[in-house]
Design goal:
The structure is a single chain. The chain has 89 residues and is α+β, with helices and mostly antiparallel strands. The chain has two helices and six strands. The protein has a four-stranded antiparallel sheet. Strands 5-6 form a two-stranded antiparallel ribbon. The protein is globular.
Amino acid sequence: MSDVTTRAFAGGRYVGEREIARGGMATVFLAHDRELDRPVAVKVLDAQLADDEDVAGRFRREALTAARLAHPNVVQVYDAGEEAGEPFI
């Protein structure tokens, strides 16, 4: 995994500090939520897959499904969207 040189998400609200995981479809970054001053994880769909409407739709459904869950062992979703053609959660 590589370090991130201040990569911003959601109009600069989340500032990526470093890559923490990479899978077949997305990369997860440790980031800082500048608005609420807290650490967050930002999952970004790989750019080459973002143009595939089926894959992008699956990613959006993942965000919606995860946002509906409330359990101490399930990560909480705070935000989802798209920036520069890259969907993120």
